[in-house]
Amino acid sequence: MRLGLNLGYWGMGNDVRGLALAIEADRLGFAAVWVAEAYGSDAATVLAWIAAHTERVDVGSAVLQIPARTPAMTAMTAATLDTLSGGRFRLGLGVSGPQVSEGWHGVRFDKPLARTREHVDIVRAALRRERLRYDGEHFQLPLPDGPGKALHLTIHPQRDNVPIYLAAIGPRNLELTGEIADGWLPVFFAPEHAGDQLQRVAAGAAKAGKTLADIDVAPTVPLVVGDDWRACADAVRGYAALYLGGMGSKDRNFYNQLACRMGFERQASEVQQHYLDRDYAGAMEAVPLDLIDATSLLGPVERIADRLAAYAECGVGTLTVSPLGTGDGDGTAALRAVTEAYERAGIT
Hints:
Oligomer: single chain
Structural class: alpha/beta
Number of domains: 2
Number of strands: 13
């Protein structure tokens, strides 16, 4: 298991801090720096900037939104970033959610599994520099009733195989990830609750003649370093409440449903109701401490080392940390602390 860094969304007031963290992660030998997008900054531009300021660390999208780009555009972006970074790009993809897909991109959130499969099929073909001919339910290339030609990518990616990761939460999405992807990008991932999720990824991998060991499990985990782990947990409450309560509608919040499957059904419902009532303080207070602790790295170095060992033991390949502020600087100290914990844990 290796360490990664997730900078989240750019342009949220953390721009300078984010670049400093990326440079520090590169210096410390982290495996990857990931960037997200929603309906603000795009991930690809930020990743190009980070790649230009680093030397060794991989740069990855967590995620590029599938409804935001045609598959061919995704392939063009991936090939360009892989070339500019000297072969350091990891392509993370996700379908986003119905509110963003339909409200921001104007793309129906229908049959997300089939759409994802076709998107990945075409991206892989394009990156192999094949002429794009595809007859799917969602994509037809070239269009059958026009003057379009079957074209191929004109540039050469740095590598023959740019690794593709999928952000997946639901059971069927997990199986699809194991089948067609090289890695999985989970959130709210806890070693104690991951058995069923990992089994589903493994089942999908088996369909393609692979095993779970062939899939890079790369969860993003909040990181807060301090003497009192319970106090550290308070720094995660806003993040957890936003996802459990505000990422989606009352009936279609995939993160809330995940918390329910983890055994926090009553608390997840309470968080969501507070959030939908715009009682954000109440939503934060309702997030169960056990859920935060199970899905975060909290407290002193010794405690974090124990949790890192648990993540490594359950099969995580790239443990991606997201330093959350406690008013103690720009976060580089937290990266140095988790690196120390990693070394103490003796992880290989």
